[in-house]
Automatic annotation (TrEMBL):
Annotated Activator of Hsp90 ATPase homologue 1/2-like C-terminal domain residues: 23-153
Signal peptide residue numbers: none
Taxon lineage: Bacteria, Bacillati, Actinomycetota, Actinomycetes, Micrococcales
Family: Belongs to the AHA1 family.
Gene3D superfamilies given in the database record: 3.30.530.20
Provenance organism: Paenarthrobacter aurescens (strain TC1)
Superkingdom assignment: Bacteria
InterPro entries hit by this protein: ASHA1/2-like_C (IPR013538), START-like_dom_sf (IPR023393)
Recorded coiled-coil stretches: none
Protein name per the record: Activator of Hsp90 ATPase homologue 1/2-like C-terminal domain-containing protein
Length: 155
């Protein structure tokens, strides 16, 4: 059974907060976020595939991937501002289809008796930009991606 994913997007503020617990140690959950081979196996909904074209998950490193299906791929890119092993990732996220709409994402990893609580706080450039991202079904992709991560961590 998969753990629930809580996604909060309060009206009037350009934030999305996501909290998810995993039945795996922090080191394994963190590694799945910084290892490009693992990331490509779980990121996004089952109906898509992810192709990592660049992924240097270190402070100051950059990243880029494409995600999609037979109907087309969409590009995403960003920069890792801070990477603290097993604790913190601060990065930018930019959907190449909406240039100059950069999101700042802060993700923390917390040990809860051998399990992991992951919390992400995303800051969008405006409420409108956040609402457009949510309208694309972003929440569905996040939830299903974390279900895929559960399966990867259990294997």
């Amino acid at each position: 059974m998969s753990n629930p994913t809580t996604i909060t997007a309060d009206p009037g503020v350009p934030f999305v907060d996501t909290v998810r617990e995993f039945d795996a140690p922090v080191s394994a959950v963190f590694k799945a976020h910084v290892d490009p081979d693992l990331l490509a196996k779980w990121l996004g909904p089952r109906s898509t595939q992810t192709k990592i074209t660049e992924y240097n998950a270190t402070t100051g490193g950059s990243w880029r991937y494409e995600s999609g299906d037979d109907n087309g791929m969409a590009g995403f890119r960003g920069v890792f501002h801070t990477v603290e092993p097993d604790a913190l990732i601060i990065q930018t996220v930019e959907f190449e289809g909406a240039p100059n709409q950069v999101v700042i994402s802060t993700t923390t990893f917390e040990d809860i008796d051998g399990r992991t609580r992951m919390s992400a706080h995303e800051v969008y450039p405006s409420v409108e930009a956040r609402d457009m991202a949510l309208a694309t079904g972003m929440d569905y992709g996040v939830i299903e991606g974390y279900e895929r991560l559960d399966e990867l961590l259990a294997a």
